[in-house]
Amino acid sequence: MRPSANEPAGRGTPNPAATNAGTPAGSDPARVDPARTDPAYVDPARPAPGRRSGAAKGDRRRAQIVSAAVECLVDDGWPGVTHRRVADRAGVNAGLLHYYFGGLGGLRREVAVRVSAEVLATFGDALRADPDPGDLVDVWSRELADPGPGDRRVRALVQIMVGTAYYPEVATVVRDSLGATKRVLAGYLLRVHPDWTPAQADVRASLLVALLDGVALHALADPDGHSVGGPDGLRPVLGVLLGGGPQG
Questions:
Q1: Which end of the chain is more exposed for a tag (fewer CB within 10 A), N or C?
Q2: How many CB atoms lie within 10 A of CB 34?
Q3: Is the pLDDT confidence value at 64 over 50?
Q4: Taking the CA atoms of the chain, what radius of gyration do you get in angstroms?
């Protein structure tokens, strides 16, 4: 990043407005601002340093608990996401789960948010440079057919989808995440296929998301990829939906 991108314009030149910041209009500009001279002065408009550090510590603790809950989910499914197991995995008092999340319902929601955000970020990274659809067909057909032994990301995604059948708070998050993922895919398809209509892109994006989720589930049951025919079986289907590559 260029250093100049973070430097204010005219750096090194005194700014009268900034110099007199905190001076009420019509008052003497020479008035000394106590915030600049008195170390004991506390500006009521700014939180105390202790409060800021406390909030940051709370954010870290929340993230730590959510990470532990995701690990429990991957290892044991939703039955493994209990107060005691999550607290033990995170190394915290079980009472903090209620303090930070209001109970297991709130924690389940945050777990769904975390996993869904990671999936959406993966799509965003893959499509950011608008890759050629044919190249994407080749990459996705290989990765979907062979997600790797014990791919914890796939296990987490499958558990989140399962959770939609039992927990309304999870279903709400997944519904919103699916909508966001479809919009990312549809936007990519419209950029690489300017002759397509928005309706065409939306339908293909929806089918792609359904295909990817379904293949992720099959990958857990059949790690060798026999149920989807391996990369060669996926390539024609992806080619049709992405509009690139061999279409069988």
A1: N
A2: 13
A3: yes
A4: 26
Q: Which of helix, strand or coil describes residue 157?
A: helix
**SS3 at position 29:** coil
Closest CA to 185 of 161, 158, 203: 203
Residue 180: CB partners within 8 Å, gap ≥ 6? 120
pLDDT of residue 9: 45
On whether the CB atoms of residues 132 and 189 are closer than 8 A, the answer is no
CA dihedral 194, 198, 204, 210 (to 10 degrees): 140
CA distance 219 to 142: 12
CB 120 within 8 A of CB 85: no
Residues 6+ apart with CB under 8 A from 66: 107, 110, 111, 114
| C-alpha–C-alpha distance, residues 206 and 214, integer Å | 12
CB of 239 closer than 8 Å to CB of 246 = yes
Helices (H), the chain: 16-19, 34-37, 49-76, 83-90, 95-101, 104-127, 133-145, 152-163, 168-192, 198-221, 230-242
Q: What is the pLDDT of residues 160-188, one digit of tens each?
A: 999 999 999 999 999 999 999 999 999 99
Q: How far apart are CA 155 and CA 16, in angstroms?
A: 59
Q: In sequence order, which residues have a C-beta less than 8 Å from that of residue 31 and are 6 or more positions away?
A: 23
